[in-house]
Design goal:
Mean pLDDT: 83
Order of helices and strands: HEEHHEEHH
Helix content: 25-40%
Shape: elongated
Oligomer: single chain
Largest sheet: 2 strands, antiparallel
Length: about 150
């Protein structure tokens, strides 16, 4: 046992964990075969902690209107924003038009994340919800990236 060291160094934690992954981490798990020792399940919703309370991230227009995560004055604009994002298709230019009265074509390849969010005039709490709760950014790097990312 002295050759292997302290047995506590090899402790295996068997408590269930939640990992939200894509990209390189998913590829590494598949390539190394680690996925064979895991169970993958679909998560039916996302949640965000705000002011010590757990809230479900709204995914429909109705959920946006009833969500306590946004100020009342921001809910209409937020529901328009989320509806536009849900309709958007990169390869369909007809979905690139935004605006109620004056239609504007949004080129997400050329716009920065900051200018895209500025166009929608969302409150900081709604931007935080959209970018951290929905898009899962851990920092504000999305502001300098193309809006298409």
């Amino acid at each position: 046992s002295s050759v292997l060291g302290n047995p506590a160094s090899y402790y295996v934690d068997q408590v269930p964990k939640l990992m939200m992954i894509k990209g390189k981490l998913a590829t590494i798990l598949m390539d190394t075969g680690a996925h064979r020792h895991m169970q993958f399940r679909r998560v039916e919703g996302s949640f965000i902690m705000r002011q010590g309370e757990l809230h479900q991230v709204p995914t429909t227009a109705k959920e946006v209107t009833t969500s306590p995560l946004m100020a009342i004055q921001d809910k209409l604009q937020a529901s328009r924003f989320f509806a536009w994002v849900n309709r958007y298709k990169a390869d369909d230019p007809s979905t690139h038009l935004a605006g109620m009265v004056r239609k504007t074509t949004l080129n997400l390849q050329q716009m920065s994340g900051a200018s895209f969010l500025q166009y929608w005039q969302l409150q900081p709490s709604t931007i935080e919800l959209a970018m951290h709760g929905c898009a899962l950014y851990q920092d504000n790097s999305y502001l300098n990236h193309p809006a298409s990312e």
